[in-house]
Amino acid sequence: MQGDFHYYATYCAAVLAGYDHKNSVDICHAAQLVDHCSRTWLKKAGGPSQAATTQLQAELLQARTDPIGLCDITRIWSSFHFLPRDLYADINMGSQNYKDKYRLICGPNGNLLVDTVKLAKGKGTEAAGIAMHVLADTWAHTYFAGTPSLVINNTNWYFYELFPRDDGEPERRQIKFSHNPSASEDVDKPVYVGSVYQSDENSIMNLGHGRAGHLPDYSYIRYVYLPAWGGYKEIVKDNPYDYEHAFAQMVYALGYLNGGRDEFEKETYATDKIALHIERIREIITKRQVDASKDWKAFGESLSGEMIPDFDKDEHIAEYKAGNREDTYLGRFFQAANSQKKMVSSRIMESGNRLAGLV
Known about the structure:
- By secondary structure, the chain is an alpha+beta fold.
- The protein has 2 domains: 3-149 and 238-350, no CATH class; 153-236, no CATH class.
- The protein is built from 15 helices and 6 strands.
- The strands form 2 sheets. A 4-stranded antiparallel sheet has the order 2-1-5-6.
- Helix 1 packs across helix 10 and helix 2 packs across helix 8 (125-140).
- It starts with a helix and ends in a 9-residue tail after the last helix.
């Protein structure tokens, strides 16, 4: 997902879960900051490098892809953007390395999601925002893994967008991928930007959904493709369905974090809280656009009656540098990020999976 959902839709979810305007802004700021808290930015902010929740493209291009470097990459991307659904998935084929990568495939409603949300309980708005980023991405990034892998993350020419038709059978239009990172995407042709094919299993180009470009981040799209790990059988990804469930689950999870619920359980959604607004939510999610920020922002402001400020990743740096660093917004964000990374990496290691290394 991107800023439209991580920032503005998360604000909407927080308001519907009972948070006031200020706390809702703090939550969605933390959710969006996960996509900006790189080691480069941490150096500017004066924060600890181990609190990195993402890696810039320039950082990734210089990253080591030996076992130590791969562990570092996996800890970041599996902890915050591609939370594994089932670390103990039953897979009997392939080498141990293949099995380890297969078990890192992202998806919603896994045990690690429960651990993530419960870890944020009582830790403030910063931890809540981080948990909401992770939760939302389990839906958007389903079927991809937060570790470099050609066999898990590759896509090929068999990649079609699905358009509804009156007879019930969707029309298929083959998606063309451009490999020019500065190229504009055309949702009408459709042409999208994806990473260049690299035959090296551990190439950084094969991290996450890079080969599929930003398609998993667009709420309106439905598509079908043939991943190698799926035995070359069609996998259908229905983003409108997934994004609606992600939003309803965020409202439910934030209600738990806000004290409105005693327990957080998998496959549970705050459908009652969003029922009054479901038509508008679906209208935003299904609108054919690559950035829904304007629509989510307008919806959020209609809910709270307040203006949602633009996101500024540097907003809290001065406070962090000036005072007691631990007792600041960024101090709490960094602590929550480290806790999330340590928890996920520990669970991966405890499962016998070697890809996150020793914690």
